[in-house]
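Need residues for this backbone.
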């Protein structure tokens, strides 16, 4: 058991039966009354932010989590199958644990956040940007390229992305996995 004196950025704790990561904290000693620690925490599974105030010296449960490199292999009825890049150990996880499953391709590198004590996966994160090929899109109309008009496109994983009118079928684009939006065209 640790206390609020041990709080630092990046520390993972159990709070309300969930695992939270400390994003920001501030020790406050008011002129009148007891000291306290004001924190901003991010839920490791959902990513939601939460603000909480702990009384100074309160006990907290520290959780040991590790970020491990994995490679996506395939999807079957058991879920999404990944292989650890160093130990070659394979695991299957459910879609809810992946931050952007619609952009997951075979042999895609991901970072898995794992609860180190019981080896359960908590979260699977794709890189911030992934390269995709546009497999289908309507042709752009000449003369409409001066505006910021967007059109729908389907990329090689089957996901829908809004792209600028000048992008054609067969071109490669960079997609932001955090928002699912078009970032830039990749020049061949």
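Answer:
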């Amino acid at each position: 058991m640790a206390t609020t004196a041990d709080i630092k950025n990046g520390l993972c704790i159990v709070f309300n039966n969930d695992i939270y990561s400390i994003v920001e904290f501030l020790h406050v000693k008011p002129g009148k009354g007891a000291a306290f620690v004001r924190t901003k925490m991010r839920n490791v599974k959902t990513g939601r932010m939460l603000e909480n105030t702990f009384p100074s010296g309160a006990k907290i449960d520290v959780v040991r989590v590790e970020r491990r490199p994995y490679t996506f292999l395939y999807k079957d009825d058991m879920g999404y199958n990944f292989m650890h890049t160093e130990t070659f150990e394979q695991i299957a996880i459910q879609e809810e644990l992946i931050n952007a499953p619609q952009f997951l391709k075979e042999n895609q590198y991901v970072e898995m956040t794992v609860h180190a004590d019981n080896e359960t996966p908590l979260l699977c994160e794709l890189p911030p940007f992934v390269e995709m090929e546009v497999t289908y899109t309507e042709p752009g109309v000449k003369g409409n390229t001066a505006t910021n008009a967007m059109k729908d496109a389907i990329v090689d994983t089957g996901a829908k992305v809004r792209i600028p009118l000048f992008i054609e079928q067969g071109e490669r684009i960079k997609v932001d996995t955090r928002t699912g939006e078009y970032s830039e065209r990749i020049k061949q």
